[in-house]
Amino acid sequence: MKLEYSFQRETIDLSGFWHFRIDPENKGESEKWYEEPQVSEWDELYTPASWNEQDSRYTWYIGTAWYTRAFWLPEDWRSKLTLIFFDGVNYKAKVWVNGIYLGEHEGGFTQFAFRAEKALRFGESNRIVVMVDNTLTGKTVPPGAGMNATYFDFFHYGGIHREAYLLSVPKVHFKDVTIRTEIKGKDGILDIDLEIVNELEEECSCNVTMQVIDEDEAITEERTSVTIGPGAEKTIAQQITVENAEFWGPESPRLYTLRTKLAHDDSKGDVKDTRFGIRTVKVEDGKILLNGRPVFLKGFGRHEDFPVLGKALHGAVLRKDYGLMMYIGANSFRTSHYPYSRTHLDLADEKGFLVILETPAVGLRENVERLDDPEIVEKVCRMTREMIQRDKNRPSVIMYSLFNEPGSGREEFRNILTAAKGEAGKADPTRPVTFASCRHLDDVALDLVDVLCHNFYYGWYSNYGDLEAAAKTLSETLDELHRRFPDKPIIITEFGAGAIAGVHRHPPEMWSEEYQAELIKTYWEVLLSKDYVSGGHIWNFADFRVGQSPRRTTINRKGIFTRTRDPKLAVRVVKNLFTNTPTYR
Ligand code: GCB
Q1: Is ligand 1 within 6 A of the CB of residue 401?
Q2: What pTM did the predictor assign?
Q3: Ramachandran sector of residue 103 (left: φ over 0; alpha: ψ -120 to 50; beta: rest)
Q4: pLDDT tens track of the chain, all 585 residues?
Q5: Which atom of ligand 1 is nearest to the CA of 498?
Q6: Which of 228, 266, 287, 322 is the most exposed place for a label (fewest CB within 10 A)?
């Protein structure tokens, strides 16, 4: 199901307190908890948020848990279609409304929706029940074997951690809108695909209007008409020129809206607003070109992680984070290691951040038996498709990262990468693809990507305590990568050091704030000295929670801010480095 529905349409937000109950013995389905749950015996938790930090009884819980709440549906929604959307449920979800099963979804970080009319009662109260299962296996994406045995380095939260809502759409409606942009002189050229569905029992002749809206004013208008048979779909392709357009970029994140309207039989039909920016991204001669100019990405690998909320970054936290990233002079981040929430990326569009959008395919390495296991390939491809489907119209997204640190030294990795790349290309042929490698010179798949992304930890996991040796290894490795792939730009998608806030050492030593600051400065100097390097992302923007292990002091300390966003010493250093590094070079 295509999911790019607009929020100008009527919605009912299901955020708030839901009844909650864990099900460690997995008996809820056989006991039919989805029918008429005795909620007086259940706990209450807030969503969107993970279950883990709302009550210490659930912090380390892994397995099945149930959520339920009641909601009221207006009578006048009866004549239309109703979808129930979930922006992110970690990890598997099964959904019932009024005891009727609607469907299931696997994957914690991509949006899904179910048609719900068969189960709904209009003008009455309804009950939704969601069974969530965050069990990890060798075949989940990401994979793992337990809370402290994840194959990835972030806390494995569970629950309904992003918004859930109902959406009402007319029976003839826009199912999807895709906008690709090109630049011709001073003009923006929009290539638009409108997918229209007719769920009426008769043929429908519709009038379609497309307007480009610039700050509440329509600056272009095109009309066309289309006839669609009962139960059928049609795609209309249209090109629109925006004369004297203002182009989107970090220095001026100019956004426009495409307003599409559908009318038939003189009745009011569907209206959908889709926001876009006019910009191009190309990889040419070893450079990443934004609107034809070579860009340099300065920023971070981030995480969605915050005390109590878990994997949900509420608006206030995002507001704070963007303020800090802008204060520091960053222009970019990677959605390590899963696609981030809609709001997270809406702000990137608005504030002009260059985003490497990453799939949840992290941890597919040593512990996974075969990387090209058909079950894993199917899941990675589906999640890639779902990710691109939601975010393809965002100007901020300049590249797709298909994996983080996969077993890319193994020949079979080429198979799963080829499959994921094929999927990405089908969903969106306009953006470059990459993955974040930790195999470097031993990587067997670098020829398959458009941009080389590498995570380096010289000075931390190797050459530790010795920044001079780290700089030398870094420089030599980069030069060798460039020698092998002279036409591919290189981005250092991770480099960093753990620093426990408040620990100081002179001369700098590992785990001190000084060592972290010094390592970042050392790396930055090396990166800037190579004109084939197109960016550097510090690992990480903020400290984040991880499982328990002898390697970590309960949280990963590589943030330049603490988990609650207090600055470490490195912040001043990074602000200086970033503000003195131009975006175009
Ligand atoms: C990496 C991973 C990242 C970890 C980081 C670390 O290479 O991509 O997920 O958190 O190293 O701190 O070890």
Answers
A1: no
A2: 0.97
A3: left
A4: 333 444 468 999 999 999 999 999 999 999 999 999 999 999 999 999 999 999 999 999 999 999 999 999 999 999 999 999 999 999 999 999 999 999 999 999 999 999 999 999 999 999 999 999 999 999 999 999 999 999 999 999 999 999 999 999 999 999 999 999 999 999 999 999 999 999 999 999 999 999 999 988 999 999 999 999 999 999 999 999 999 999 999 999 999 999 999 998 756 689 999 999 999 999 999 999 999 999 999 999 999 999 999 999 999 999 999 999 999 999 999 999 999 999 999 999 999 999 999 999 999 999 999 999 999 999 999 999 999 999 999 999 999 999 999 999 999 999 999 999 999 999 999 999 999 999 999 999 999 999 999 999 999 999 999 999 999 999 999 999 999 999 999 999 999 999 999 999 999 999 999 999 999 999 999 999 999 999 999 999 999 999 999 999 999 999 999 999 999 999 999 999 999 999 998
A5: 12
A6: 266
Active site residues: 405, 494
- Cα separation, 91 vs 110, in Å, equals 10
What would the two tokens of residue 68 be? 């339920």
Distance between CA 512 and CA 51 in Å, rounded?
Answer: 33
Neighbour tally for 22: CB within 10 Å: 19
* Beta carbons of 419 and 402 less than 8 angstroms apart: no
Residue labelled with tokens 């965002």: 394
For the Cβ of 405 lying below 6 angstroms from any atom of ligand 1, the answer is yes
The 3-state DSSP class for residue 432 equals coil
Provide the β-strand partners of residue 299.
332, 537
